[in-house]
Design brief:
44% helix, 108 residues, mainly alpha, 0% strand
Length: 108
């Protein structure tokens, strides 16, 4: 069974759940049984009676969810969240040397 081929047979509640959870690897039992009742082809289950989604299913659901606006795929493939932004270092003003001289004179 492929979610892509069974998409039009699924009820709107099932489709909505799938669009809101496109990264789910294994479907809950209630959803799995609902899909098996609506599917045209035989559904394969894991040992717990849950439908395991394939890579093709994930790709299809991600594309559908992005088109529906329930998720947003980043513009770039790689994003690093643990790096701090680089600080902006300004150029010294012309009066900085004068300030340093005044500080040196106060210490005397």
């Amino acid at each position: 069974m492929s979610i892509k081929h069974e998409w039009n047979r699924l009820d709107s509640e099932t489709r909505t759940w799938l669009l809101e959870n496109p990264a789910c690897l294994v479907l809950p039992q209630a959803l799995s049984s609902r899909i098996s009742n609506e599917a045209y082809k035989d559904v394969e289950y894991d040992v717990h009676g849950q439908v395991v989604l394939t890579r093709d299913d994930h790709d299809f659901l991600r594309d559908k969810a992005e088109a529906a606006g329930t998720i947003r795929v980043p513009d770039t493939e790689y994003r690093f969240f643990d790096t701090a932004p680089l600080p902006v270092i300004g150029t010294p003003s012309s009066g900085k040397g004068k300030h340093t001289q005044e500080s040196a004179n106060k210490g005397r």
